[in-house]
Amino acid sequence: MALNGDQLRALRILSLHGADERTYEAWYKSICRWYSKEFHTPLSQVMEMSEEEVVQVYFDDRYWTMAGSDSEDTQKAYKELKDKILKEGLKPMEKVAAEEEAVEEEEDDWYKEELRKLQEEDEKTDKSDQPKIADKKPNLIGDKPDPETVYFEGEDGPLKDD
Questions:
Q1: Whole-angstrom distance, CA of residue 147 vs CA of residue 63
Q2: Which of 8, 58, 87, 147 has its CA 20 to 30 A from that of 131?
Q3: What is the mean pLDDT of the chain?
Q4: In angstroms, what is the C-alpha Rg of the chain?
């Protein structure tokens, strides 16, 4: 089943939003793609793994690479990152949950606003060249509509059998 233009546009908007706003969902998907390439694992299989496992492997690989680098800049960046992370420590789970919920609500609001904009745009589109089915509901006999009660607006009357 192929996606239609509106579906493709909505997916592109979500991807752009994830890239611009650096949402957790977009970040996690990028890590899943990295994992899939790095470990030659089908992406669908990675997406079924626990987030904790995928993210831990990502951090392990990233920090291991940074710590073992010969580059002074990378070593400096690793030390700064390590100091920052260890200084922050662990947040209470209630605070983490509240922050995640706030981010999800913000993303939901943004998504709803984008859908509203798309709907407004669709309503503005001129659809006068498309036939409209009259308000009369067909009297269905089996799977075939009754030709006496179904017709398109603008036509002189009901459809006739050929």
A1: 71
A2: 8
A3: 77
A4: 27
